[in-house]
Amino acid sequence: MVPFNILVAVCLVYVGFLFLIAFAAERRAARGRVGWLRSPLVYTLSLSIYCTAWTFYGAVGYAARSGLEFLTIYLGPTLVMVGWWLVLRKLVRIGRRQRVTSIADLISSRFGKSNLLGVLVTVICVVAATPYIALQLQSVTLSFGVFASDAPEGWALPNQSATALWVAAGLALFTILFGTRNLDANERHHGVVIAIAVEAVVKLVALVAVGIFVVWGIAGGWQGVVETINSSAIAEWQLQPGRWIGLTCVSAAAILTLPRMFQVMVVENADERHLATASWAFPLYLLLMSVFVVPIAAVGLTTLPAGSNPDLFVLTLPLAQGQGQLAMLAFLGGFSSATSMVIVASIALATMVSNHIVVPLWLSIRQRTAKGRATGDVRGMVLMARRLSIGGVLALGYSYYHLSGGSAALASIGLIAFLGAAQILPAMLGGIFWRGATGAGAAMGLIVGFIVWIYTLYLPSFGEDGLISHDLMQLGPWGIAWLRPHALFGIEGLDPVLHTLFWSLSLNAISFVCGSLFTFPSPIERMQGVAFVNVFDTDADTRGWSRGGAEAEDLLIMAQGILGADEAQAFFQAEAEAQGKAGLLPDTTPEFIDRLERRLAGAVGAATAHAMIAQFAEGAVVSAQDLMAVASEAQQIMEYSIQLEAKSEELARTARQLQEANDKLRDLSVQKDAFLSQISHELRTPMTSIRAFSEILMDPELPPGMQQKYAEIIHDETIRLTRLLDDLLDLSVLENRKVQLNIKVANLHDLIEKAVRAASSTQPQRSFTLHRDPPAEHIPVITDTDRLLQVFINLISNARKYCDAERPELTISARKRGGRIIVDFIDNGSGIPKEARRLIFEKFSRLTDNNQAGGAGLGLAICREIMANLGGSITYLPGQGGAAFRVSLPVRPPKEIIERAKTS
Amino acid sequence: MTGKVLLIEDEPHIAEAIRYVLDRDGWQVVTHGEGADAMRVLRRERPDAVILDLMLPGRSGHDILAEIRADPELHGLPVLILSAMGQAQERARAHQAGASGFVAKPFGNDEIVRALREVAAR
């Protein structure tokens, strides 16, 4: 038999293996090579988290108890997948267009970015997922127990509850490590998806292996299996049409509304076309998972001793036949089923809890207590909220397991969860197909359905005298018979699941429809309604912002707090480029703010993103144009106006480019004059000292000690003059691209090290703190290393000279991103005033005419030219607090630069 | 005649050279190295003449000259302008603004002594 320690060790090794796969996938994705990480096959396999431990162990138990009825659980999803064109395609399109992060976000976003709805859906999902997570804990615990009971004395499980607790804690840790390592801007978890795809293969292989063993190893081929089935209780099973139809509907609803399914199907979807593959491949997977269920159940019922738990036949059959290794494989399959479900479900739930409950709370507290706006480290807060939420979700699951006694059949627990999640279906379908649906209606439907579900199915699931007393179950509250949880409104004798299905969904849908008909949607709700329902008809995006005096820099600072600096800067830069502007700060047009909002929504959800933006853009004013677009039924008018809009946008872009070019030309002509008089000044100043002191040296009355000192001054000023001329010549060579390049390979770390050393010898000698991350600096660079070094030295000594903080600090951070090497130099001073930033890279644009600092104001101009010669760039980074410069360089020098280095 | 002269010049070496030369000529030299605070120093020191560089950090020499000429108490103060721009138009501009004399950099030591004496004697 398999000793307990080895079992635990195998689990740990398996988890470690998954972690490695996830880690490798994320590394790959970070390097921009997504490729097969997002293939239709991986997508289909990831959908298999639908098959949890319930399917793996529970289906056999289900078949042993109720015959072929277990097939309904596969039938519903199959229908949804085959009919993907109808609903799934629309969900995925909306999810992508609106950057939906979760099912709560979908509902909240559709009904006017209402946070109330977000909270409501989150609560329903968390409560409904609780029994489901308990189910996974129970199955893992039971499977441990199977090995324990067969084992020799010494490691029998002393306490099932304690085992479940350990399993829950382990899974929480695992999920936190897996799912919240960083905050993805678009909520895509490459690592997790790959890991669950691998687990999908493991569980399929395990179940098929057990099936093959049972059919050919025990029953002696299909002939034997058919005989066994005919002689077992399964053959006497009666078809109940009501339950078949009902359960098929429930499972069809569940695959659309379960948070974890929504996560893998919609949020993690990389390409709509993957749905087409999944529409046949996923039903095929389900078929393979179910084909051996009845044989295993029948053989288990006949060969194992009476009273064995049919939920565990998958494990106990191989064990009873002495097939320890096969049992181990089956155990891993079940373990995979449970872990993948728990991981994805708790990631999805944690996203909802943090986006719809924690962040809005934090925002409102921040706004009430702190003056000003919440822009700080939202990222860190969100991550922490997610980690805590994962812990909380698993704690709830464990509590349910503990309270319900861990004894119920796996299938019945699963159905409770399915029905809970299904309460979201009316609001979801109504939201994407019916423009008249309103948030008030959705809220009413959700609340009514949720209450009926809790009362008639969830609370009774804890067993009689669990949370609901025996009397209440039998006689109804206050003795009112028609309010009995299992016989609402006097309908008796119905199966509890069907009873809840009927009442909760019908009352839910009726409330939703009536509520929607009798309430009036707000403008923003209307706009979102059009955007959702007509998602295929138009590319026009609705807008909610007027140009409300938002400062691009403020928005950038906020976006950096949420998306992270790199992501936010890249987004702003792309937006500025699209507008025809240089630098990182685009004009805050309504279109830009809207795109920014959707980008932020990808990280923190629609409602929160809307609230964050609202701090800066004055009011969510809906323009007359938007309202017209909403009201207009005529598609032609809309399309025509879209074309016009595109044209006028293009014109505006050209105008902006022209304006900018014009400004630049005017500045350049002013600069040329200033340049000449500056040169004159810079040359005459040292010449004045040289002439004056050489005449003084000729003075016969000069005190004897002074001769030496004055000669030194002459010497220093001559050097200053030479350096100035060198700089000017250097600049002119660089500007004409005639500089001789000497391409070498070096370690970036060594270059920075050298630059720091060289710059520390410059004046002034004051205390100066450097922050660096040396391990990250070890990046090979292929370029003219002397020239790059010159740029680094210049930036570091500039920070030393000009940083006006009381305790000057400079942070140098280096990294490789998208084929470029990026080095940022950020000090903690007061930075460079906005209006001066455009000119700092021009010649002689020294900001303060402070000669103590030395130099003629050519440094940054030379840096800019050097970087241009090296095929890279140097830019000012706004929104960092102090003065901040970014040096960016291609990993490999462009071809023409290599050519130039060769010829020169 | 000689007396007290305030030298407003931001280049320390140039200031040192001028101080040496004027010292030798019998002047009491007070130096000040930037523009922003120059008027306060001027009112405190009450010099007999001012040598003013045009390119100063903080505040330009042109501004300072204008303020001197606008102040009735300082209206007659002799001001000798130092400039790294030697062109005629720069010189004319300084005179128009009320400069008493103009010396272009680089200058000979005799030149500055002579120019200061000239403006102080007027």
TrEMBL record, chain A:
Spans through the membrane:
6-25, 41-64, 70-88, 116-135, 163-180, 192-222, 242-262, 282-306, 326-359, 380-401, 407-425, 432-455
Report the PROSITE patterns cross-referenced here.
HIS_KIN, NA_SOLUT_SYMP_3
Q: What highest taxon heads this organism's lineage?
A: Bacteria
CC annotations in GO: membrane
Q: What's the chief localization of this chain? A: membrane
Q: Which GO terms describe its molecular function?
A: phosphorelay sensor kinase activity; transmembrane transporter activity
Q: Which Gene3D superfamilies match?
A: 1.10.287.130, Histidine kinase-like ATPase, C-terminal domain, Sodium/glucose cotransporter
Which region is the signal sequence?
none
- On whether Chaperone is a keyword of this UniProt record, the answer is no
Q: State the membrane topology.
A: Multi-pass membrane protein
* Alphabetized InterPro entries for the sequence: HATPase_C_sf (IPR036890), HATPase_dom (IPR003594), His_kinase_dom (IPR005467), HisK_dim/P_dom (IPR003661), HisK_dim/P_sf (IPR036097), Na/Glc_symporter_sf (IPR038377), Na/solute_symporter (IPR001734), Sensor_HK_Regulatory (IPR050736)
Residue ranges of the Histidine kinase domain?
678-893
UniProt subcellular location: Membrane
Coiled coil location = 637-678
What catalytic activity does the UniProt entry give for this protein?
A: ATP + protein L-histidine = ADP + protein N-phospho-L-histidine
Per the similarity annotation, which family is this?
Belongs to the sodium:solute symporter (SSF) (TC 2.A.21) family.
Please identify the protein, giving its name as recorded: histidine kinase
From TrEMBL, chain B:
Where does the record locate the signal sequence feature?
A: none
Keyword Ribosomal protein tagged = no
What are the alphabetically sorted keywords of the record?
Phosphoprotein
Per its UniProt record, what Pfam families does this chain match?
Answer: Response_reg
Under PANTHER family, the record lists: REGULATORY PROTEIN, STRESS RESPONSE REGULATOR PROTEIN 1
**Which one GO biological process term can you cite for this protein?**
phosphorelay signal transduction system
Q: What is the lineage of its organism?
A: Bacteria, Pseudomonadati, Pseudomonadota, Alphaproteobacteria, Rhodobacterales
InterPro entries in the record, alphabetically?
Answer: Bact_response_regulator (IPR050595), CheY-like_superfamily (IPR011006), Sig_transdc_resp-reg_receiver (IPR001789)
Q: Which domain of life is it from?
A: Bacteria
Q: Which organism is it from?
A: Albidovulum inexpectatum
The name of this protein is: Response regulator receiver domain-containing protein
Which residues are in the Response regulatory domain?
Answer: 4-120
In the record, 4-aspartylphosphate modifications are located at: D53
